[in-house]
Amino acid sequence: MWFLCLGKDKEWTPEELDQTAEAVGYGAVKYADLKSNRTTGYTFDFDAMLSDKGNTAVYLLYAHARICSIIRKSGKDIDELKKTVELVLDHPEEQALGLHLLRFAETVEEACTTLFPNVLCLYLYSLSERFTSFYSIHQVIGSPEEASRLLLCEVTAIVMRKCFHLLGINPVYKI
User: Fold this and answer.
1) pLDDT tens per residue, the chain (175 residues)?
2) Which InterPro entries does this UniProt record tie to the protein (predicted)?
3) Does some domain include residue 57?
4) Maximum CA pair distance of the chain?
5) Which of these, 152, 145, 131, lies nearest to 62 by C-alpha position?
6) Are 139 and 71 in contact (CB under 8 A)?
7) pTM above 0.70, yes or no
8) CA–CA separation, 53 vs 39, rounded Å?
9) What is the Cα–Cα distance from 156 to 127, expressed in whole angstroms?
10) Does some domain include residue 175?
11) 73, part of any domain
12) Is residue 35 within 8 Å of 58, Cβ to Cβ?
């Protein structure tokens, strides 16, 4: 996972580098196995597994780390926001993300009932895409909707972590 380490040697401890590289490496292989329908053929392609674009663990772990970074950079106490702020989804991208988050329970049930973990992988990838679409259009930090959007980021990160847990992948919090 050398590409993750470029420029991080001064910012991160050796333990952080090792833990992140291990999480991404193992996650890449696990996710590549689980994202395919178990009834179809399988091709082992290490380069494809480690791609940071598309439906890969590297992309998903990076998306999660980016969400965590947004929350950290805000300097806000998320637990306090949960008590005092109402989540408002006024824009189409916020609504699409919110609606997708609501489908988490039914997706887990479907994956468990059918024994197709690829259903959960597809959900997680779609969640990341919806978050990226939201974030590319709407400012979070410094916007009038900052508090609500930080809550939306937090909910997205929580659901992503639950997906990672179910798939046996360790999330990373910074890359």
Assistant:
1) 444 444 555 678 888 888 888 888 888 889 988 888 766 666 666 565 565 677 899 999 999 999 999 999 999 999 999 999 999 999 999 999 999 999 999 999 999 999 999 999 999 999 999 999 999 999 999 999 999 999 999 999 999 999 999 999 999 998 8
2) Arg-tRNA-ligase (IPR001278), ArgRS_core (IPR035684), DALR_anticod-bd (IPR008909), Rossmann-like_a/b/a_fold (IPR014729), tRNAsynth_Ia_anticodon-bd (IPR009080)
3) yes
4) 50
5) 131
6) no
7) yes
8) 25
9) 8
10) no
11) yes
12) no
What is the C-alpha to C-alpha distance for residues 4 and 100, in angstroms, rounded to an integer? 29
How many domains in the chain? 1
Helix axes 104-114, 146-167, angle to 10 degrees: 10
- What are the backbone angles phi and psi of residue 64, rounded to the nearest 5°? -65, -45
Ramachandran class of 66: left when φ > 0, alpha when ψ lies in -120 to 50, beta otherwise: alpha
The enclosing domain of 132 has a CATH number of 1.10.730.10
Q: Are 86 and 148 in contact, with CB atoms under 8 Å apart?
A: yes
Residue with tokens 């994202």: 35
Query: Would you state the structure tokens that stand for residue 26, as one six-digit string?
Result: 């193992």
Task: Give the chain's length.
Answer: 175
Residue 8: inside a domain, yes or no? yes
Residue 85 belongs to domain spanning: 2-167
Q: Which residues contact 72 (CB under 8 A, 6 or more apart)?
A: none
- Residue 116 confidence (pLDDT): 94
